[in-house]
Amino acid sequence: MKSLAKHRRHPAAVLVVIMLGLLLTGGLYAAANTATEARSVEADALLIEEGKRLFLEGCSSCHGLAGQGSDNGPSLIGVGAAAVDFQVGTGRMPLANFGAQAPSKAVEYTDEQIRAIAAFVASLAPGPSIPSAEDLDFTGVDVARGGELFRANCSQCHQAAGRGGALSNGQYAPNLMKTTPEHIWEAMLTGPQQMPVFADTTLPPQDKKEIISYIESIRASDDPGGWALGRFGPVTEGLFVWIGGMLLAVILAVWIGAKVR
Ligand code: HEC
Ligand code: HEC
User: Fold this and answer.
1) Any residues with Cβ below 6 Å from ligand 2, and which?
2) CA separation for the pair 125, 119 (Å, rounded)
3) Any idea which of 50-64, 222-236, 243-257 has the lowest mean pLDDT?
């Protein structure tokens, strides 16, 4: 007993205890990890099965029984989970009417069902996946740079203020003020209709984060009151003040002139 107490005070004892602790927690962590991994693969299989059922019921009439496409809808092989989450999550799919563009409308599936259909479509062939929690973590993101990227890549269609605008053939770039960060990310990754695909090679994840933060920031500043003046920035605001000021000066001059006479 006495000798053990002596050993305990030995400097190396601390090291031994720390090493033991690390080994133990590491081992436990690894064991827990493989257990959850095994469970998630099983859950995936169930999810895909459920997704397939929903797909056959609600999507296959246009996209084919195996997602290969038909006269009524394009092939979904390789579009990935991101495209499904975007199209179904914004209510564009299932398509209600054939027109120039599938509009966003009330969402017809629960989040869990959308995940299932997405998992099924992703199981057909690899494609862009739904953004992770890490992708959607916006702490410390450079919003100003996001503004520059937005003006360089997005504003020619969605307008400087992200309020959307008309394109050719009766199509339009929608207003971005109601879209969730997750769906903005997926729109960039999958490029619906006339929108180009902004793959991670051309627009790295960090750039996507910055763009989304910028869109969120203009949404947050959404009309603090007064006139938005089209939100074209200092030029319109300056012009407005200038014209207003001129008018006021003219009125004042006329008034002063009238007083003298
Ligand atoms: C009435 C026919 C119809 C139904 C039903 C339908 N779709 Fe579509 N889908 C289309 C058409 C047409 C397009 C192409 C037009 C477009 O992209 O706006 C399309 C496009 C898509 C795309 C985009 C593909 C790409 O290349 O990015 C996805 C993903 C999709 N559909 C998924 C689904 C899912 C999932 C369902 C079932 C919940 C579904 N659709 C139901 C007709 C349909
Ligand atoms: C060439 C024109 C064009 C450019 C450039 C473009 N988009 Fe789009 N965008 C579109 C069109 C068209 C749609 C509608 C597609 C549809 O409804 O199927 C769209 C849809 C979207 C949506 C879905 C909005 C909704 O309805 O919920 C988001 C988000 C989006 N774009 C973000 C962006 C961002 C961010 C950029 C820049 C990185 C960008 N877009 C660049 C044309 C464009």
Assistant:
1) 90, 101-102, 104, 153-154, 156-158, 167, 171, 173-174, 176, 179, 183-184, 187-188, 192-196, 198, 211
2) 10
3) 222-236
